[in-house]
Specification:
Ribosomal Protein S5, domain 2; 2 domains; five-stranded antiparallel β-sheet
C-alpha cells in the first residue's frame, strides 16, 4: 500500500481519465505468462476495490490480481497492491505507469483511474526485474490503445432569454465554440447554461458576446463550478 494523502481542496483545473462506464482491456504475453490489463474510470476507493473484486471472480483461476489506482483531480489518493508478487514488482510499476503518463499540456495527468493486471503464470520465472517490466508494460500498452477524455473544472453561467430568441442564440454560441451544458425551458423564458473556463477574462468575453448577439437583452450570470468531460 502507498501513503495516504491528507484531503485538500482541489487546485487542479483539468485532468485525463477514461470515458464513464467504458472499461478497456488488453493482453500481453511475456515468456508464456499472460498479463490481462483492465482499466476502469473510478472516483472512489470503494469503486476501485470493487473492480478488483469483480476480476477475482471472473479470473478466479489466475494466480495474481495486481492493482493500482489514482483518484482525485489533484491525484491525492494513490494506492497499489502486489497481490502476492514480490514486493514492489507489480503494483508500484503499475502505479508509476499511471502517474508518469504524458497527457495534454495544462492537465494534472491521469486520474480517477484503476488498473488491474491479472497474471496467469506460464511456468517460467521472470525475476523481479522481469516482473517490473511486464507489469509496467502491461499498463502502458493498455493506455496506448485506450480512448481517454479530458475532464475540466468549468464555471457554469446562465443566460435567460426569451423563448423566441433561444434557438438562434444557442446555435450562435455553439458556432462560436462555446460549450452548452444545459438548456432549461421555463414558463416565461429559456435558460441556457454555458460551461466556461473558470477565469474572469473568459467570462467577460462570453458576456460581451451574448450582449452583442442579443442586442443587450440578455446577460451572463456566473454560478458554481462543475467537472465536465470535454
Amino acid at each position: 500500500m502507498l501513503n495516504d494523502a491528507d484531503p485538500v481542496e482541489s487546485r487542479a483545473t483539468s485532468y485525463v481519465t477514461l470515458p464513464l462506464g467504458r472499461d478497456f482491456r488488453s493482453e500481453l504475453e511475456v515468456r508464456r505468462s499472460r498479463f490481462i490489463t483492465v482499466l476502469r474510470r473510478t472516483d472512489t476507493e470503494d469503486a476501485a476495490r470493487a473492480l478488483v473484486a469483480e476480476l477475482r471472480k471472473e479470473f478466479h483461476d489466475a494466480r495474481h490480481h495486481c492493482s493500482a489506482f489514482v483518484l482525485g483531480a489533484d491525484r491525492s489518493v494513490q494506492r497499489s497492491n502486489d497481490d502476492g508478487e514480490p514486493s514492489g514488482s507489480a503494483g508500484m510499476p503499475m502505479l508509476d505507469a499511471l502517474l508518469k503518463r504524458e497527457t495534454e499540456p495544462g492537465c494534472t495527468g491521469l486520474s480517477d483511474m484503476t488498473a488491474v493486471v491479472v497474471r496467469y503464470f506460464g511456468g517460467i520465472l521472470l525475476g523481479t526485474g522481469g516482473l517490473v517490466r511486464a507489469y509496467s508494460d502491461s499498463v502502458s500498452t493498455a493506455l496506448d490503445k485506450a480512448t481517454l477524455v479530458r475532464r475540466q473544472r468549468l464555471r457554469l453561467c446562465s443566460i435567460t432569454v426569451a423563448h423566441a430568441q433561444a434557438g438562434r442564440l444557442e446555435n450562435d454560441l455553439r458556432s462560436s465554440g462555446y460549450l452548452l451544458a444545459q438548456t432549461r425551458y421555463e414558463a416565461a423564458a429559456t435558460v441556457l447554461t454555458l460551461a466556461l473556463a473558470d477565469d474572469p477574462r473568459t467570462i467577460s468575453e462570453a458576456a460581451d458576446r451574448v450582449a452583442t448577439l442579443t442586442s443587450g437583452a440578455a446577460s451572463v450570470v456566473a454560478g458554481g463550478t462543475e467537472w465536465i468531460d470535454g
